[in-house]
Write a structure and sequence with these properties.
It is found in: Cell membrane. GO terms for molecular function: phosphate ion binding. Belongs to the PstS family. InterPro entries: PBP_domain (IPR024370), Phos-bd (IPR011862), Phosphate_ABC_transporter (IPR050811). The chain has 320 residues and is α/β, with parallel strands linked by helices. The protein has 2 domains: 137 residues, D-Maltodextrin-Binding Protein, domain 2 (3-Layer(aba) Sandwich), CATH 3.40.190; 136 residues, D-Maltodextrin-Binding Protein, domain 2, CATH 3.40.190.10. Helix content is 45%, strand content 22%. The chain contains 15 helices and 13 strands. It has a 6-stranded mixed β-sheet. Strands 9-8-10-6-11 form a 5-stranded mixed β-sheet. A two-stranded parallel ribbon has the order 7-12. Strand 2, helix 4 and strand 3 form a beta-alpha-beta unit. The two termini are 29 Å apart. The N terminus is likely disordered.
Length: 320
């Protein structure tokens, strides 16, 4: 029987990357199973869990789910990847138990859930540094300011020379996630003051990565994990926000301490009724919070402080 499944709107390439990140998890989970004494209890837990949402968060949750499946073989966890916005649509429609998100829930989404009388709990599982990258053969961009990024992604700058006088007069090939992604919303809010992004958009992050790789004048942005997976074929751009120096590089240290200007938390939003009534889901969420620190690091993201996971476990217990 298939213990878990990836249900998404991304391409086969994206799915392959997610699955590839999960190798070798079974050995670790066997050890944890012995340590926590969950073998006997696991045999009694059966059921289904349904989630959807961010493609940025998906690698972390899939990594956890690989481990979870070895300890709870009679629980089937489905994890869709229709983007943060698409995930919230399904969450609001009552189709899922949890929604992965690479941004905070919006006020209109909160209102829609309130209207449907759906109560939820927010959990943080990792930190991400939204990474801006150019083609690896680009020899003139080392850092960009927020104002320069705004010129590029608002469409004001048509050539690189329009961005900075000493850049070449080459046409910019800018790429972006589409509006279904929390990454689009986060970048729009932080860089463009919620303005519209005019770049070529795609629902599949892997297509954006490939587009930058294939265009010498290309630029794109995506989660830190996607950069880490493809860093041999991309050049990360340092980001300057305050108008001083030559920018800050996205690293585990700068994302963790928040000095990287495009750092952000990654979330799981869980439906309270499902946590109370679905033992399989409550068990999955507890397992997720207990293993998120290691899984986030193994997936190419930055773990949170231990106290954050401890506080989230307390929240979970309170809901139950």
């Amino acid at each position: 029987m298939k213990k878990w499944q990836l249900v998404g709107s991304t391409t086969i390439l994206g799915t392959a990357l997610l699955l590839g990140a999960c190798g070798g998890a079974a050995d670790k989970s066997d050890t944890k199973s012995e340590d926590k004494g969950t073998d006997t209890a696991a045999k009694d837990i059966k059921g289904e869990v349904n989630g959807d949402g961010s493609t940025t968060v998906a690698p972390v949750v899939e990594k956890i789910n690989e481990q979870f499946a070895t300890e709870y073989p009679d629980v089937t966890v489905s994890i869709g990847t229709s983007g943060t916005g698409g995930g919230f649509e399904k969450f609001i429609a009552g189709e899922t138990d949890f929604s992965n998100a690479s941004r905070d829930i919006k006020d209109e989404e909160k209102k829609a859930l309130e209207d449907k009388k759906i109560e939820y709990t927010e959990f943080k599982i990792a930190s991400d540094g939204l990474t801006v990258a150019v083609n690896k053969d680009n020899d003139f961009v080392d850092y960009l300011t927020f104002d320069e990024l705004k010129k590029i992604y608002s469409g004001e700058a048509k050539t690189w020379k329009d961005v900075r006088a000493d850049f070449p007069a080459e046409e910019i090939k800018a790429f972006s996630p589409d509006q279904s992604h929390g990454t689009y919303d986060f970048f729009s809010e932080e860089v463009l003051d919620k303005g519209e992004i005019t770049a070529e958009k795609n629902a599949d992050t892997n297509v954006i990565v490939k587009s930058v790789q294939d265009n010498k004048a290309g630029i794109g942005f995506f989660g830190y994990n996607f950069y880490q997976e493809n860093k041999d074929n991309l050049k990360a751009v340092k980001i300057q926000k305050e108008g001083k120096g030559e920018g800050v590089e996205a690293t585990e240290e700068t994302v963790k301490d928040g000095s990287y200007p495009l750092s952000r938390p990654l979330f799981i939003y869980a439906k309270n009724d499902s946590l109370k009534s679905n033992e399989a889901f409550n068990t999955f969420m507890k397992f997720t919070l207990e293993n998120a620190k290691d899984a986030s690091k193994e997936s190419g993201y930055v773990p949170l402080e231990d106290k954050v996971y401890e506080e989230d476990l307390k929240k979970l217990e309170e809901v139950k």
